[in-house]
Write a structure and sequence with these properties.
single chain; about 850 residues; alpha+beta; 6-stranded antiparallel beta sheet; 5-stranded antiparallel beta sheet; flat; 23 strands
Length: about 850
């Protein structure tokens, strides 16, 4: 293609190699000359840059002295009291020892309030000061201006301005004007040669002072090259022309403090003339030597060019991954390169085969991975569907059975109804086992962290199983160590599930004797772990069978007895114990009973004062209830249970009818099935929450046979106040109705705007901290809170960076929550969540958070006066 440089031939390259070998003496001489030239030039550069640096420091000193004097003057009591006449006299006196020509006072609007160049009280120019002088009024920081035309003197001026602060507010800007002539005096004091030119530049490269024809060049920009170099590096030298057109070496130094710079120009003819003549002679001699070297290079290069050209041809075949062979070339180095190329060809071909095999294996693994993921998702979908399909009819089975057991039955009928109820509950237990195992395998099992009493949990499980033990004439007892912790941090539901599983198994496989539950601390050094043991006098387990325990679908029934259950109980127990950080095991021998044990770590918690809860409405209170359910059996069951409890019940078949019903009639609570035709319960709940008051505040309880955590969260997100999982039991249903039917004024989940305002300060949290840490420590923490809160709020209100706002709001959640500032914590969390999004106006949330912070600070100051 046109414009592409032709590559060098091998012979040409070798020619240049020979030239490089023949010319060491010439190169050494040239190097000495060049180094001498560079050394002299470097000395000149260091010297002039050092002079420029010293002048820059002198200019900074003048500006800093003026700034320091202004900062002292800005603290004058006359400014705070508004006595500008007295301050005018002070400013006139202060000018006698300063570099400035005048002192002026600038108001918040940017106009002059006082100027020492004019008698006090005389009318001053109305136009606003330059924008750069107004920055102290906005930022509260001193400013050194660039060169500008003064509105009073109409002359080039530099100004230094500092803010005047009174009672934490900026009330004025105090400025001092300095004529360029004052700074030119700094240059003249250096006594530089007469043909050298020095100049002072402001931050933007404008000439402020100059040693030559200053009146002509003050206010003009530096030359473009010098201007660019000063913006790139703080110090250096450039070769260019001065503004008069004289070629010069310009050395400059820019201040890191003020951003101003000083440049010194030395005529190039004076600085580099002799050095350049010496360098020219050296270059001419080198040209003569090169002509000699060219002829020598041609002779040497022909001897090895042929071998290298052969290697180049084989290299192309190597790049195409072809097998190559190279004959002897007669040159040692060339033959070694040929052998290396042949070996490389062999390695490349072998690795190409290996790479193809690895890619095929990776594709097979990827296909298998996708198939496994699809199978896992299908399993989860199947379990959720089966849960819904089985739980829905089971609601009717168990509910109707409970109604039968509450009625007058013969002994035989009661026995049959009891067997029916037990069978239904066993089926639900199997469903729950399958769902628990699915959650564990999917990694969705979450443990609660609440205060629990190990002894209370164990006693509750024993109370459930005592009737079963008594019916079989088996002794069921417990042995609790005296030093058990009163409260620990844990999940009572999952701990109860493991104990219930182990004790139920022990009762099932024990014909006579006893089942004993023991709870104690582990001995040192594991004293921070609890040990639970279930000992029975049952049939025992063979050593061979023990290896299958704690595995899924492992069913070890008694000899001659058909195994019952899913075979998942012990497997789920093992997973739950391990999730709590513990271990589980068994010790057993055939016909000698078994000991199942597990240990869990614990963190002991102190008992907290019980809080008074709002009384729930009694079950006997008459309420009007809307039931939205598409299944006939469930509707009849709900109507029977609620009507027998004294409530008025209205039945609808789908979500559309539910929305119409609440718009036309008054209800105390809505029981909303989630899966219905025409309009599902989720959509109906959202529609009700969008209706005006008071309808949208009606309590809604979601009913669903889906038992996954995601389904519960979906109901709450739609606006449901509570969730009941099918099959719904009579006691649970009546309890929830009693809880919500008398609380129409209570805040619904989806209407936070109408909710009761959270407390500014939760006194119980502060009292708890005082009880644990002492009041003096709490006062110290409150002092830190008072110091940190205004700064954090200021950081939030003074930026538009959503990421920074989210970070500060997150910090505010912890800061407020630790001291019980509930209202502030809630607003901060809402702001953080909104700021983490890419869009949306944050201004209302920021304003609410700032107001909540102000109220929290006031409340803290009232409770703990500074």
């Amino acid at each position: 293609m046109f414009g592409r440089r032709r590559p060098r031939t091998i012979q040409s390259a070798l020619t240049w190699l020979v030239i490089a070998c023949i010319l060491p003496a010439w190169a050494a001489g040239t190097l000495l000359i060049v180094r001498s030239y560079e050394r002299e030039r470097a000395n000149l550069e260091r010297g002039t840059i050092g002079t420029a640096r010293a002048l820059t420091q002198a200019v900074d000193g003048e500006l800093k002295d003026a700034q320091s004097a202004l900062e002292v003057l800005a603290t004058s009591p006359s400014l705070a009291s508004g006595d500008l006449a007295d301050f005018y006299d002070q400013a006139q006196k202060a000018l006698h020892g300063l570099a400035g020509k005048n002192i002026l006072l600038v108001g918040p609007g940017g106009t002059q309030v006082m100027n020492t160049l004019r008698p006090f009280g005389e009318t001053l120019p109305a136009e606003s000061e330059p924008a750069q002088l107004l920055r102290p009024l906005e930022t509260g920081r001193p400013v050194i201006s660039d060169l500008f035309s003064d509105t009073v003197t109409k002359q080039p001026t530099i100004a230094i301005e500092v803010p005047v602060v009174s009672n934490g507010k900026i009330i004025y800007g105090l400025a001092m004007g300095i004529f360029p002539e004052r700074l030119a005096e700094v240059l003249r004091q250096e006594n530089m040669p007469s043909n050298w030119i020095a100049a002072i530049f402001d931050r933007h490269g404008t000439i402020v002072a100059r040693t030559h024809v200053a009146e002509q060049y003050i206010g003009r920009k530096a030359t473009p090259l010098l201007l660019r170099r000063m913006s790139e590096v703080p110090e250096g030298m450039v070769e260019t022309e001065t503004l008069e057109g004289v070629p010069s070496q310009l050395s400059f130094s820019r201040s890191a403090v003020s951003g101003w710079a000083v440049a010194i120009g030395i005529p190039t003819a004076e600085a580099l003339g002799a050095l350049r003549r010496s360098l020219g002679l050296s270059v001419a001699g080198a040209g003569l030597l090169l002509l000699v070297c060219l002829s020598l290079a041609q002779l040497i290069s022909r001897r090895i060019a042929g071998a290298i050209e052969t290697l180049a041809g084989r290299a192309a075949a190597l790049g195409a991954n072809e097998a190559i062979s190279i004959p002897p070339l007669g040159i040692k180095e060339a033959d070694e390169a040929a052998q290396a190329m042949v070996k490389a060809s062999q390695v490349l071909r072998r690795r190409a085969v290996e790479r193809d095999e690895a890619e095929r294996a990776e594709r097979r693994l990827l296909v298998a991975k996708h198939a496994a993921e699809e199978a896992n998702q299908a399993k989860s979908d199947f379990l959720a569907l089966m849960s819904h399909e089985i739980r829905t009819p089971m609601t009717s089975v168990i509910g109707m059975t409970e109604l039968l057991l509450d009625s007058d039955l013969t002994a035989r009928q009661r026995h049959q109804a009891t067997l029916l109820k037990d069978a239904g509950e066993l089926l639900l237990a199997i469903i729950d086992d399958l769902l628990d195992m699915s959650k564990i395998e999917a990694g969705k099992l979450e443990l609660a962290h609440v205060p629990l009493s190990p002894s209370d949990v164990a006693q509750a499980v024993l109370a459930v199983l005592r009737p079963q033990a008594a019916a079989r004439n088996i002794e069921l007892r417990s042995e609790f160590a005296a030093d058990l912790p009163a409260l620990i941090d844990g999940d009572p539901t999952r701990l109860r599930q493991v104990l219930l599983n182990l004790l139920s198994n022990a009762l099932k496989f024990t014909e006579r004797g006893s089942v004993v539950l023991t709870v104690a601390r582990e001995p040192e050094p594991e004293a921070t772990r609890l040990r639970f043991e279930v000992r029975d006098t049952g049939i025992g387990i063979d050593a061979a069978q023990q290896g299958r325990l704690f595995q899924r679908f492992s069913q070890l029934g008694a000899r001659g007895e058909r195994p019952r259950g899913t075979g998942l109980g012990l497997a789920i127990s093992r997973q739950l114990v391990e999730a709590m950080g513990g271990t589980i095991g068994v010790k057993s021998r055939r016909a000698e009973g078994s000991v199942f044990w597990f240990t869990i770590p614990y963190a002991e918690m102190r008992p907290q004062a019980a809080r008074t809860e709002e009384p729930a409405l009694g079950a006997g209170s008459r309420s009007r209830i809307l039931v939205a359910e598409d299944q006939y059996m469930i509707r009849e069951l709900m109507e029977t249970i609620l009507t027998d409890a004294g409530h008025d019940v209205v039945l609808v078949h789908n979500g559309t009818e539910a929305v119409e019903a609440v718009e036309q009639d008054n209800f105390d609570v809505v029981l909303m099935d989630i899966e219905m035709p025409e309009m599902d319960g989720i959509t109906a709940t959202r529609r009700i929450r969008q209706i005006g008051k008071p309808i949208r505040n009606i309590p809604i309880v979601a009913l669903t046979a889906y038992a996954m955590a995601d389904d519960v969260e979906r109901c709450r997100a739609a606006g449901a106040n509570e969730h009941l999982s099918k099959p719904v039991k009579r006691k649970e249903l009546l309890h929830v109705v009693a809880k919500w039917s008398g609380a129409a004024q209570a805040p619904p989940a989806a209407a936070p705007a109408d909710a009761a305002s959270p407390p500014i300060i939760d006194s119980t949290i502060l009292e708890d901290i005082e009880n644990h840490l002492g009041q003096s420590q709490v006062i110290r923490l409150v002092g830190l809170f008072r110091d940190q809160l205004p700064k954090t709020v200021s950081d939030i209100t003074s930026t538009a960076d959503r990421k920074l706002i989210a970070q500060q709001a997150h910090a505010l959640i912890s800061l407020a929550g630790n001291l019980g500032c509930t209202e502030l914590m809630i607003h901060s969390r809402a702001l953080m969540n909104a700021a983490r999004g890419d869009t949306g106006d944050l201004a209302p949330l920021i304003a609410e958070t700032a107001a909540a912070a102000h109220r929290a600070l006031s409340a803290m100051q009232d409770r703990y006066p500074p």
